[in-house]
Amino acid sequence: MSGNLADLSAGELLTLFRGKKASPLEAAKDVLARIADLNDDVNVFRLIDEVGTLEDAKQSERRWFKGEPLGLVDGIPVSVKDVLLTKGWSTLLGSKLTSPDQPWDEDAPPVARLREYGAVFVGKTNTSEFHWKTVTDSPLTGITRNPWNPELAPGGSCGGAAVAVATGMGPLALGTDGGGSIRVPCSFTGVFGLKPTFGRVPQYPAGAF
């Protein structure tokens, strides 16, 4: 397929995968290239796992070629807000106070569900320290910029997630919302965000929100 797969929505990618007009590996490569081009300008990611992303995409590609996708997100590049436990990756909550020297051997429930259905995880997106502010800056990662005007804020605390979607650094981004943390940055950056009904998505570990 001509064109950049990083510019497509998750639904558009699924249509191409089903029709064998594009593959999860091609989509992952385009998203990683977009991250390499733009991340330094807007500061979206604290962690990028290029090797893991490509390996997950290859496995997804094999499933699609056999006609056996795991679910509606199989092969879709997804980023994870750096407050949600993600197996194999540190979760530092935007703070230098969080020690990276921990096992990091389990997934938060929404991460586990996405992994079960074949999502291709790209990396951890920036958040405000302990995700308690509606801006996205922290002592750990600095300031995340609004992609439409770098002098303006993208909102928070899911500013990294919202900017990732707005700039094509992955069509889906997993966040959290206790007081607007998804809704505010999505409104600031022009993308769609959803806060599920409280209790609809299991929360672990337990937190104030």
At the fold tier of CATH, the topology name is Amidase signature (AS) enzymes
Number of helices: 6
**CATH fourth-tier homologous superfamily:** Amidase signature (AS) domain
Regions with pLDDT < 50 over 5+ consecutive residues? none
Along the chain, the helix and strand elements come as HHEHEHEEEHEH
Q: Which CATH top level class fits?
A: Alpha Beta
What is the molecular shape?
Answer: globular
Question: Would you identify the CATH architecture?
Answer: Alpha-Beta Complex
| Beta-strand segment tally | 6
> Structural class, please?
alpha/beta
Strand order in space, largest sheet: 1-3-2-6
The chain-level mean pLDDT equals 96
| Total individual domains | 1
The span between the termini is: 43 Å
Q: Kindly state the percentage of residues in helix.
A: 25-40%
Radius of gyration computed on alpha carbons: 16 Å
Could you list some keywords that capture this structure?
209 residues; alpha/beta; 6 helices; Amidase signature (AS) enzymes; two-stranded antiparallel ribbon
